[in-house]
Amino acid sequence: MRKSKVFTGVLIAATMIMVAGCAGTSGTPKEESKAAEVQTSGKEETEKTEGAEAESKSEGAFEGNDLIPVVDGVAEITCGATTTGGWTYMYTSSAAQVVSSNNDNINITPAITTGGGENLISVATGEMPMGVASAAYIYNYYNGNESEGIAPNPQLRTLYGSPNSFLSVIVRADSSYQTIEDLQGARVSICNKGNSGQLLISELLTVMGREDYYDLQYLTPSESYEALNTSTIDSLWICACDPHSSVTEIFNMPGGARFIEFSDEQKKLFLESCSYLSDVTRPAGTYKGQD
Fold this sequence. Notes:
The protein has 9 helices and 13 strands. By secondary structure, the protein is α/β, with parallel strands linked by helices. It folds into 3 domains: 10-20 and 66-161, Periplasmic binding protein-like II (D-Maltodextrin-Binding Protein, domain 2), CATH 3.40.190.10; 25-58, no CATH class; 165-281, Periplasmic binding protein-like II (D-Maltodextrin-Binding Protein, domain 2), CATH 3.40.190.10.
């Protein structure tokens, strides 16, 4: 099955290149070292050694700033994630745990947010040191988007890129909908506002001239699963890395689910309009019943 994917996937953007790049040393250890040199002869060598060790430990130490406080020598870094229950939150939490457990002087805490939109606003305005966001949001905030009132933010930096995200249209397996056109007027969830996928899907709806074509619902991936399971919505459009937890649940629900393909003309339009997209094949068997 062929799907469009976000070329650069989910990315981490920050107002600094890396914490170590902001390192500085304080004057205190050096002053202690000088004091050690004038101690009484009986303690002179001991004090010199202790002073030198203190100075050595201070080299490269991060002193902290308004965004990243240092508590007992540990830099406490908040990283904007997204809503819980999705792939991105689990990925961010796992990455934070890996970094924190392998660095004695860094502790990263994932923050629950609405997603990449909120994260990029917080990072760009200097309210949060870093957060995850999709290529669509990063493109808009780095280069600026006059129509959206977004000024360029060249101070943003990408620290790490995750696996690519896949854009998918999902319906119940027993649904009568077979094409994108069939969904006209249907209840379609495009994920919660502020979610990175919601921005991408909104842009593609604009490209297709279909902003009012569907009865749009703004549900989190977890809420969308519940709504599809109870037939409260007709379809979920989602941009997420495979295998996504909520998508897995949807395909495992009673009756199962299936994907609806974009037409070749629609995919060509997307690729011409959004430079961060590329065409891709999803391997069969990624989700239950997807052959």
